[in-house]
Amino acid sequence: MNKASPNNGKAIWQPTTILAPVPAVMVTCKGNEGRPNIITIAWVGTVCSEPPMLSISVRPERYSYQLIKETGEFVVNLADRQTAKATDLCGVISGRDHDKFHETGLSIGRSTTLKTPIIMECPINIECKVEKELALGSHNMFIARITAVQISQQLVDDKGCLHIENAALVGFAHGHYYQLGKQIGQFGFSVKKN
Ligand SMILES: Cc1cc2nc3c(=O)[nH]c(=O)nc-3n(C[C@H](O)[C@H](O)[C@H](O)COP(=O)(O)O)c2cc1C
User: Does this model's pTM top 0.70?
Assistant: First the structure.
């Protein structure tokens, strides 16, 4: 039961997955046979810089779980304003009985290092190979090495710099989707001299 704290006036909640915002991404996966699938994942995060690695947590009962287990690979496709509705749809229907590429109208593109396809409409596609799996409880975490990254040309300037502020990326917080908004600083701005 949630109750008010006697000490500092904050509401005290039971332990829950409140970390926010988190990305809501579309993860593509494909078994050795059959069509490619898309699963929406919010339990995703960067876990290592060198080598570059990320994790996704997937419930074993998901159809996508079997596909990722089979091939040991997946692609994390970042959602933006344009692909937000498709992101939600891929999180409420199953690839067991739906062709999600067909139903969302999203287009299949080639990975550079994997057999799993990317989603062309997503601004950033992160190709991943699974290195470890951890059974945590409701979810199994796949820890994966990033083998390649594809970025939409519109986000990269002539000098090769990424302008992620133009991507209109989507965040997810407590059951709601948000479009990433105003930039309020940059790495190290707290100590930067004017
Ligand atoms: C915003 C959002 C985030 C989600 N995050 C996760 C997640 O992190 N892990 C998970 O196993 N399922 C998550 N789901 C649920 C799956 O996307 C959903 O069960 C989906 O239909 C599974 O597809 P599949 O059966 O084709 O694998 C999420 C759904 C939504 C809408």
Answer: yes
